[in-house]
Specification:
The chain has about 170 residues and is α+β, with helices and mostly antiparallel strands. The chain is about 20% helix and about 45% strand. It contains 3 helices and 13 strands, in the order E-H-E-E-H-H-E-E-E-E-E-E-E-E-E-E. Strands 1, 2, 3, 4, 5, 6, 8, 9, 10, 11 and 13 form an 11-stranded antiparallel sheet that branches. Strands 7-12 form a two-stranded antiparallel ribbon. Strand 8 and strand 9 form a beta hairpin. The chain starts with a strand and ends with a strand.
């Protein structure tokens, strides 16, 4: 699900300002390289935006897209600079209750690369046996992308070539 122009321009600008003042740290592993905020957002504007995603109405709206009741949402800020990437993976785990993943793009001006690829997967006994790129979503400021989390929902963020891809992302539970 893609929702463009979610916020009025002044609210989007306020979020951009807040992200610019939120502490971010390098986050690197074999499958990713980006900057991320702490698990708990510090800036009041970001905390308020996160709170809006966790209202009863927002949880019901997102839950209606997947036919499941949702109880909470997690949110962090992510900054992908040139060279940043996230290789194909699934956010699903048998030990978590993640139902829907999301990314809200705050800033993408001058960004080259950083597309979100969603893969079509064939499962064999609950494991990915085959995958192929199915959808490529361009990062665009003020765009919200939502997708279900399951063993067959593989996605990646392509390497950023120039500019920055800044998002508020997380999961609905």
């Amino acid at each position: 699900q893609i929702v463009d122009d979610l916020l009025p321009a002044d609210e989007l600008a306020a979020l951009g300002h807040a992200v610019a003042h939120e502490p971010h740290w390098p986050n690197r592993a074999d499958i990713h390289d980006f900057m991320a905020s702490a698990n708990e957002l510090a800036h009041p504007t970001l905390r308020a935006f996160h709170g809006g995603f966790g209202t009863e109405a927002a949880l019901a709206t997102v839950g209606s897209l997947v036919g499941r009741a949702l109880s909470r949402v997690e949110m962090r800020s992510y900054v992908y600079l040139p060279g940043s990437f996230l290789l194909p993976h699934s956010d699903w785990s048998p030990t978590t209750d993640r139902v829907v993943a999301y990314a809200f793009y705050v800033w993408t001006q001058g960004c080259e690369g950083g597309e979100l690829d969603l893969f079509a997967c064939t499962l064999d006994q609950g494991r990915v046996a085959d995958q192929r790129q199915a959808v490529c979503i361009e990062p665009r400021a003020n765009r919200l992308v939502l997708f279900e989390v399951g063993p067959g929902t593989v996605h990646q963020v392509r390497k950023v070539q120039a500019g920055a891809r800044v998002s508020l992302s997380g999961w609905f539970y």
